[in-house]
Predict the 3D structure of the following.
Amino acid sequence: MNRSRRVSLAGAALSAAVFFPFGSRADEPPKTETETVTPPPPPEPSEEEVREEKRALALEKGRRAMQLFRAGQYAEAYPLFRDADEAFHTPQLVLYMARCQDKRGKLLEARALYERTLAEPLPEVPSESLLRARQAATAELGPVRLRIPTLAVDVRGPPPAEVTLFVDGELWPMAEARELDPGKHDVEALARSGARTAREVELPEGRSVSIVLRLGLFAKGVERTIEPAPIEPARPTWSIVAASGLFSIGALALVTGVVMGGLTLDRRDVLETECVQERCTPAGFLAYEQTKTYASVSNLGFGMAAIAATAGVSVLLFTPSTKPAAARGARVELDVRGGFMAVRGVF
């Protein structure tokens, strides 16, 4: 290769290095006019905007709750007042929550809400509505406290360490008065031995109630059986009703016979006085007729009593049992109730 050719190649290489210093871009895809740029995210709302949004939500719920409260629908108004307070807290909303629970008889919760209203710290310049709310809470809290009843339960029988006491399903201390809402409450005592007794208690407003429950072998209402399975009635209901009716008729007839027999004896005394040697005075003849009538009624009463008693026993003895054959097996039961104990066999 001659010298002039080498000089030409060197010049071409130098020109390429000067005009294309970063290499070729032929491998990159060309940009099109349809390519869009992602817009920036919207700005976050300010604290003031969030506060105004919550305030508007609380105002709407508060208006609906106030309509229900004025209509006497306290159970429906209470959750709306609560939701409004959670969105935008004000003591006025808490005050109306307390009033709703007060009207519903939930005095314990009402008292706590009134006290919460009074515990609110006051700003430097309190509004007139806030001051009115505190005054109303102060005036209404006192009567609510006086209306709350108390209940004390004393369990007799086993040692206290062996007894568990429940009131409305919650563990309850024995012989210690505690506050409850007025109304009905379920009281239940369980002994470690398995004895159980339960009672429903009605608590009037403003009253202190103390009750005694008895547990043990002779506890009232306690019944234990050797067989744990529930005992089905051995006789159909109609037979028990029929037998009871027959026994009642027999008892009434027996009383009639006894009364008429007593009157017959009384008339006999008159006969002995008014009738001498088969000659009777008018009063004697009257006593004679009455004696025959009383004696007939007395005999009839005794006869009906015997017939009714026999029929009642027959109904109980000869009415077939409604139990399946497998359930009519023999067993022995121990029945303890009302201060007595009995052992009975079922065959």
Remarks:
- The two ends are 134 Å apart (CA to CA).
- Residues 237-274 form the longest helix (38 residues).
- The chain has a mean pLDDT of 75.
